[in-house]
Amino acid sequence: MNRVLLTILFALVLALPAYADVTIKQTNTGKGMGVSGTTASTSYIKGNKMRMDTVQGDKTISMIFDIDAQKMYMFESKKKDAEVWDMGSFAHEIGTSVDTANMKVSLKPNGQTKEIAGKTATGYDMDISIPATMGGNKEMTLVVSLTGPTWIVKGAPGTPDFLRFYKAAADKGWVFSDPRVAKASPGPARAMAEMYRQLAEAGGIPYETQMDIKMGGGSGPLAGILAKMGNMSTSSMVESIDTAPLPDDLFAVPAGYKVNTKK
Q1: Torsion of CA 219, 221, 222, 225, to 10 degrees
Q2: Which of 14, 18, 167, 255 is buried deepest, with most CB atoms within 10 A?
Q3: pTM of the prediction?
Q4: Is residue 135 included in any domain, yes or no?
Q5: Higher confidence at residue 33 or residue 83?
Q6: Three-state DSSP state, 207
Q7: What is the pLDDT of the chain when averaged over all its residues?
């Protein structure tokens, strides 16, 4: 009887999904809109929570995404206050400024492979275009497009948890940027969110991504604004992935910080 019970328990354990915490370190480069530079960032994923630390000069900017609570927290290493955003209402606000019904999305294998950080990555070509408005003004319409190659590693450490988190975020309509920036430019924010959803559906972790972001389709004053803003390009490269357990307090605002609610 004991042997039968042990066999059943062992089978149940094998049937359960494997959960593991994930730490991803990567290098990011951006250029456009008068800004250029390279930053190092670390993403920590634990269930439906993610923390992203980005080093900028002598300070670290942290963002915590809590999918279940529908909250996003932002704070800096050199300040003792944090901002909290209600992402449920924010996602709805962004949705009213972006025409997702006419959004066009394509993620296709390009038949190429290459070695990245000791892993074999499969190449995909991303092509996303999405209609949007500037500042919510329906008379200021434009089309935001994201194009470029991405290299996805399937079966990398932490893949199930990475995919689970981004699928949950996509189902909630989340964006992964400063809400103030997303409000000013909802098109790029929503397009980037769609990019993450597409990458997650590819079934692996993007180890390298190169993306050109273009905004066009405007007329009159909007055309002049877009001409001044110019286009953007971004790239990211995974340096390492670790699946060691992460403490719960890593996904909370540090003790002693003042929390300010933002809208």
Answers
A1: 130
A2: 167
A3: 0.77
A4: yes
A5: 83
A6: strand
A7: 79
Residue identified by tokens 């450490």 is 157
| Burial tier of 163 (Cβ tally within 10 Å: 0-12, 13-18, 19+) | middle
Q: How many domains does the chain have?
A: 1
Say if residues 28 and 49 touch (Cβ distance below 8 Å): no
Question: Taking 80 as the threshold, does the pLDDT of residue 53 lie above it?
Answer: yes
Helix (H, G, I), strand (E, B) or coil at 128: strand
What values do phi and psi take at 176, rounded to 5?
-115, 60
6 pLDDT exceeds 60? Answer: no
pLDDT, tens digit, 9 for 90 and up, residues 70-114: 899 999 998 999 999 888 766 666 556 566 667 787 889 999 999
CB 237 within 8 A of CB 39: no
User: Where in the sequence is the domain holding 148, given as residue range(s)?
Assistant: 17-262
Residue 12 lies in a domain: no
Give domain status of residue 4, yes or no.
no
CA atoms of 153 and 205, how far apart (whole Å): 5
Ordered DSSP codes for 31-63: EETTEEEEEEEEEEEETTEEEEEEEETTEEEEE
The CATH number of whichever domain residue 110 belongs to comes to 2.50.20.10
Question: In 3D, which of 80, 19, 44 has the Cα closest to residue 247?
Answer: 44
